[in-house]
């Protein structure tokens, strides 16, 4: 349904996306995760026909995004990461405007508009001005707008960005409902957890390249049983290295300023032993704490090149 | 064109703001005051005596004022039309719909011209007052109104095209007003300057001909020609129409490129042109 072959985009000397090869099967949800600047938005805007690839090809529903852009536009619903709304239009008029853009007959458009407003829990806001709606409501209205012409493919760029916790939960509910519609969805986020509930597969973008692709299950399986420990202290580097190397439970070490970040798979007793070993080796440890695990970073560090890469 | 979704949306949005009725009422009130003042000044004490020449003068002043006002008002409504969408971050979504760049531009030109056209329409009863005292013939009035409509659409088109090219509303407004400044002031000064040279220097033979060419790019001059207030070729408006239509055609390419570069990829030399992020 969505295929890219060596898709690249350069802005002058900056390479935003490099040789991206991606394949999203019909009716599946593909989550794209990466930090800011990883190339998620550029990739999605190329697929949404907003930006032309510098090289490579991308196909949506069999149509090439540059040469058959008009056909592509008819079969996608695109939600950008930051969007605005038109002032002085009601929610219903807003959706009907986009229905007109897609050439939907008026009676079909009105019926669909009311169904979708109800579907995103905005049925009672039909006549409210769009600019008077809260950010969360506007995000849900955008989802309804994407579905107005009933496209088989949805491209959603960080649909939960900028929302408060309550709106985030509501949006997650809408996204779960979207999954049940059986559409092919490409969705981006910089938080893996957000996608883990709805995505079938996750792709991790790093510096414009697809670093890894795996199912959510595989990713969580790799990450389970590991924890990240931050240790701050003063002591010779060689001593740090010796103690950490000698502990069989240490999986990965990253040196940061005055301390280290350790990926650890041992029990709490093992952790206590590690602390004792550091102290006995003469390192003045003044902080030893477990840190929240960034699953995608952990996944990348653990798997390196072992997970199937496409 | 009538089914252009942007046109419907913009009509709805523009007429819902307080700005539209305030502009219409303010404009009508000022023009009415001006008309009554001019009529009073021209026929005072002699209301029962027909003085067609004086009434024609009222018509002339009124239409020139109207042309000057709409020429300078049009960019205010059109210069931020595309750049405003870009700044409000609504353009990207619009560009993922099947509506063509030309459809977007036409919708914006017509919607931003519409309020100005409405301003012209509401002042028509004032012209009928002038008729009461004779002077202006209906053909002249029709020609003047038609030319004013055309000028509004041309200025709106140029402003909308600048709005697409310049990316930012500040720049597009500057460029749109610079264009109107060129149309009204530059062509006027240069044209009259050349005329002056032609009249006072026998060696500057071509200055006279160039003066008319330059002046025929000035909408106020064309109005004066249509009202037979100045001696010139009555077909000068054709040169005006051709020149500014050509300007629009020249600006159309970059304006479409800024909206949707892919639309121009049939041009061989653009295939490898470096495209930035314009949305």
UniProtKB/TrEMBL annotation, chain A:
CDD domains in alphabetical order: ABC_DR_subfamily_A
GO molecular-function terms, A-Z: ATP binding; ATP hydrolysis activity
Keywords per UniProt: ATP-binding, Nucleotide-binding, Transport
Domain ABC transporter: 2-232
Pfam short name (any one): ABC_tran
Family membership: Belongs to the ABC transporter superfamily.
Identification of the protein by name: ABC transporter
Organism: Alicyclobacillus cellulosilyticus
UniProtKB/TrEMBL annotation, chain B:
Any one Gene Ontology cellular component term annotated for this protein: plasma membrane
GO molecular function, one term: ABC-type transporter activity
Keyword set, alphabetical order: Membrane, Transmembrane, Transmembrane helix
Membrane-spanning segments: 20-39, 59-79, 116-134, 141-162, 174-194, 237-257
Domain of life: Bacteria
PANTHER family: ABC TRANSPORTER PERMEASE
Protein name: ABC transporter permease
The species this protein was found in: Alicyclobacillus cellulosilyticus
């Amino acid at each position: 349904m969505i295929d890219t072959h060596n898709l690249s985009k350069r802005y002058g000397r900056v390479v935003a996306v490099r040789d991206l090869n991606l394949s999203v099967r019909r009716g599946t949800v593909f989550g794209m995760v990466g930090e800011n600047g990883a190339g998620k938005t550029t990739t999605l805007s190329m697929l949404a026909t907003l930006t032309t690839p510098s090289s490579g090809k991308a196909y949506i529903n069999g149509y090439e995004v540059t040469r058959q852009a008009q056909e592509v536009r008819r079969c996608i619903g695109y939600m950008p990461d930051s969007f605005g709304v038109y002032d002085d239009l009601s929610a219903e008029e807003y959706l009907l405007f986009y229905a007109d853009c897609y050439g939907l007959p008026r009676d079909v458009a009105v019926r669909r508009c009311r169904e979708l407003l109800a579907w995103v829990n905005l049925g009672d806001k039909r006549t409210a001005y769009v600019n008077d709606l809260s950010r969360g409501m506007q995000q849900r209205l955008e989802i309804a707008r994407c579905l107005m012409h009933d496209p088989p493919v949805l491209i959603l760029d960080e649909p939960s960005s900028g929302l408060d916790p309550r709106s985030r939960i509501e949006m997650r509910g809408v996204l779960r409902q979207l999954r049940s519609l059986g559409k092919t969805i490409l969705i981006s986020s910089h938080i893996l957890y957000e996608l883990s509930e709805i995505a079938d597969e996750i792709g991790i973008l790093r510096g414009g390249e697809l670093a890894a692709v795996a199912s959510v299950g595989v990713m969580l399986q790799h990450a389970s049983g590991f924890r990240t420990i931050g240790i701050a202290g003063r002591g010779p580097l060689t001593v740090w290295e010796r103690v950490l190397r000698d502990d069989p439970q240490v999986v990965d070490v990253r040196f940061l300023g005055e301390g280290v970040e350790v990926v650890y798979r041992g029990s709490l007793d093992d952790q206590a032993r590690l602390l004792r070993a550091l102290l006995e080796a003469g390192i003045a440890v003044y902080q030893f704490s477990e840190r929240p695990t960034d699953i995608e970073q952990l996944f990348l560090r653990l798997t390196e090149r072992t997970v199937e890469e496409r | 064109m009538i089914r252009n979704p942007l046109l419907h949306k913009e009509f709805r949005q523009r007429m819902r703001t307080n700005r539209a009725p305030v502009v219409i009422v303010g404009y009508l009130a000022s023009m009415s005051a001006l008309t009554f003042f001019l009529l009073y000044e021209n026929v005072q004490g002699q209301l029962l005596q027909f003085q067609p020449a004086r009434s024609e003068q009222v018509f002339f002043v009124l239409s020139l004022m109207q042309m000057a006002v709409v020429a300078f008002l049009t960019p205010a409504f059109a210069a931020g039309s595309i750049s405003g969408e870009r700044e409000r971050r609504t353009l990207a979504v619009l560009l993922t719909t099947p509506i063509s760049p030309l459809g977007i531009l036409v919708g914006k030109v017509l919607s931003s011209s519409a309020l100005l056209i409405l301003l012209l329409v509401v002042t028509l009863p004032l012209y009928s007052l002038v008729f009461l005292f004779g002077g202006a013939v209906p053909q002249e009035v029709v020609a003047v109104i038609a030319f004013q409509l055309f000028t509004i659409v041309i200025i709106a088109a140029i402003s909308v095209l600048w709005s697409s090219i310049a990316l930012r509303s500040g720049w597009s407004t500057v460029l749109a007003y610079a264009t109107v400044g060129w149309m009204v002031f530059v062509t006027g000064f240069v044209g009259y300057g050349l005329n002056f040279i032609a009249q006072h220097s026998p060696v500057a033979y071509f200055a006279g001909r160039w003066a008319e060419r330059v002046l025929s790019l000035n909408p106020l001059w064309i109005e004066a020609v249509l009202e037979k207030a100045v001696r010139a070729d009555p077909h000068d408006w054709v040169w005006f129409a051709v020149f500014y239509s050509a300007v629009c055609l020249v600006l159309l390419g970059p304006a479409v490129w800024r909206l949707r570069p892919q639309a121009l990829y049939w041009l061989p030399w653009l295939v490898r042109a470096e495209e930035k992020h314009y949305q």
